[in-house]
Amino acid sequence: MNLPKGERLLELRFPAQANRMALVRQTVRSAARFCGFDEPDTRDIVLAVGEACQNVILHAYAESDEGDVVLGILRDGDRIVVRVTDYGPAVDPTVFKPRDLRDLRPGGLGTHFIRELMDTADFGPAPDGLGNVLQMTKKTKSQEREGGRL
Amino acid sequence: MTEVIRDEEGRFVVELEGEIDLERAPALRKTLLDCVRRGRDVLVDLSRVTYIDSSGIASLVEALQDAGKSETRFGLIAISPEVMRVFELARLDKVFTIHPDLGSALEAGA
Questions:
Q1: Rounded CA gap, A104 and A96, in Å?
Q2: Which of A6, B1, B10, B104 is the most exposed place for a label (fewest CB within 10 A)?
Q3: What is A83-124 written as a DSSP string?
């Protein structure tokens, strides 16, 4: 996985617990607005990052029932880069794929949402070999327009 | 998220408010399944829901499937554009019966 340098905006470490999600969403919302995203795109980013954190809570620490999530947000030119890192057992990256939506059943939509809402989503082992990283990026529309004028 | 359950002409109307996420979804799941398993039709008012994620959607899908098994009706009313976007992303906007408001739902016999 290519980890861009980017400008570090914030890093948040929190216990992988469902009752932290509202706090996390507020932080992500603020960061997306700070990067210049409009409200619809901000909502999309908040949902995608929420789903990523939810996957960690439900799957990465399913056996130990406790662990931390590290949320890193960077700005890389006209993109926001969001990294969600866990310290759970290594997960086969091929499991990070959306399910067939024609199969109506509860659950399993999170990965589909992430793929639909973000421009890129890459899942793999953490660079230091401990845990897993999901890295997502999304470009701002205003920057796209600006880029088009140059 | 808060929830209120009302009796409306023999059916349950479940009014939800706030954000439905992984923290709230288990309670919502229980509420909806309890209503469906009482054998009555259920309408879920989402007009004051500001956020829903895959865990909330999963609770609604499970209740819909349970209603199908017990041959009761399960519908949604007054979904905000923000929440509708999530249904559309999940390709569920055509799977659920969605009414613009309670009056329309009652008129339709839902």
A1: 19
A2: B10
A3: EEEE-SS---GGG-SPPPTTS--SS--HHHHHHHHSSEEEEE
B64: in domain: yes
- Percentages (nearest 5) of helix, strand, coil residues in chain B: 40, 30, 25
> ipTM for the complex?
0.92
Task: Give this prediction's pTM.
Answer: 0.91
Residue B110: inside a domain: no
Question: Is A1 within the bounds of a domain?
Answer: no
Number of domains comprising chain B: 1
Consecutive H or E run containing B4: strand B2-8
**pLDDT tens profile A103-140:** 777 667 999 999 999 999 999 988 887 899 999 999 99
Parent domain of A88: 7-149
Instruction: Write out the residues of chain B at the interface with chain A, using a CB-CB cutoff of 8 A.
Output: 19, 21-23, 51, 53-55, 57-59, 61-62, 65, 82, 85-86, 89-91, 95
